[in-house]
Amino acid sequence: MSDSRFIRPGRADAAFNGVVGWLTRIGIPLAGSRVLAVRGRSSGEWRTTPVNPLRVGGTRYLVAPRGNAQWVRNLRAAGTGELRHGRRVERFSAIEVDDAEKPPILRAYLKAWAWEVGRFFEGVDAHSPEERLHEIAPGFPVFRIVSAAPAHE
Fold first, then answer.
1. Cα(29)–Cα(32) distance, integer angstroms
2. Predicted structure pTM score
3. Which structural domain range is residue 59 located in?
4. Number of domains in the chain
5. Residue pLDDT, tens place only, 100-116
6. Residue 3 domain-assigned (yes or no)
7. Distances in Å between the alpha carbon of 134 and those of 1, 32, 55?
8. For residue 109, what are the contacts with CB-CB under 8 A and spacing of at least 6?
9. CA pair distance 19, 17, nearest whole angstrom
10. In degrees to the nearest 10, what's the CA dihedral of 18, 3, 80, 40?
11. Sheet strands side by side (includes 34-39)
């Protein structure tokens, strides 16, 4: 699987993301969702998208189930972003995870979020062998969230 993999959202996905983003912005996150805000790598404007932060062993991560989406490219360039829900804003730094470290994170992500994003994993699920998770790892960017102090509440 290519590390340049990207799955463009369809109409249904765009509508679902719109609803999830709206609910999260007004303070009603769906199953722990947040709105990720990252400065655009060219424009410098804030870009937002709903994400599903994941906690594994006390560390939080962002997984990109669609591959190298615009938010991934922007986060790589900026290195920082914000996780928002309601009026709460958490500033963070992002550290991209090496492919070798991804399998347990991808497995946990699939356990938590397969109901929403499982179709993007092309037949791989939380019960797939470790080798299969290693094979697909390059196509799924993962970032470790390193929190700063909350920006405001």
1. 5
2. 0.83
3. 11-152
4. 1
5. 999 999 999 999 999 88
6. no
7. 10, 27, 20
8. 52, 54, 61, 63, 65, 117
9. 5
10. -60
11. 46-51, 34-39, 80-85, 88-96, 142-152, 59-63, 54-56
